Amino acid sequence: MIDDISMRLIQSIIDSQKNIIVIFSDDEEVILLNKEFKKFVNVSSVEQYKEVFEKFTDHFVPHPLYFNAEKIISPESWFDAVEKLEEMDKVVSILSHDYLPYAFSIDINSDVDGYKIVTLRDITQTLIKRLMIENKTNMDSNSGAYSKQYFLNIIQSYEDAASFNERTIAMILINIKNLNLSDDKDKLSEFVNYFKNIIRQDDMLVRWENDIFLLNFFVDKEENSKIMLEKLNNAIKNDIKCVKCRFTLGIKTEKESVRELIDRISETSCST
Hints:
The protein is of the alpha+beta class. 39% of the residues lie in helices and 24% in strands. It starts with a helix and ends with a helix.
């Protein structure tokens, strides 16, 4: 058994993590929950959790796209069943306390004899993007950027992901001034591919209008949004000099919706 001081030290460490962490005994009993998971399922302690929930696998939504209890072959444990999967298949869907679906990748650490340390990393947006790409329903066919309709469809999920990860949504409106890209598919694709190569994997470049793009990304502080703006400005000045762009940066305020943020930066762009 873990002594009380060690237990408190471990609790402090896992509470400092942004990902969900749950520590189990080998017989699947929940030993510790970090604060992210307590917040996710709306419990205050392990004791309360055990009163409300039974098997941990009951959290897993029974959907063929995700790992769930139906994919466990008795008498193996769910830990063993997950470990047999390819990395890309180690994904579960879990409903939050307010019944919103999230997708998580699973990592199981068995280094400590008698215990399993399970880490759940929120990949909801990444998975949505991957599935939509596979179905080719989210892309603007001419540019290769995300389509406006796709982004409008996932706005609520995007806001939820930012809230869950304690990040702020930032946007940069990219208004192309000297080139009618809608008339030249090759130049349009080249322009988009260049920007996709300098932004992060989880950033979203959306074709908003013919010659207007919207770059959406998460930041932990306002200064980092300005770093992204500077990065784009330098790219235009130094690498793709033939294109003139006007960039308008906006940071979502606490009481502002994403749609309101888009309206605000669009108005700002038009007035400058």
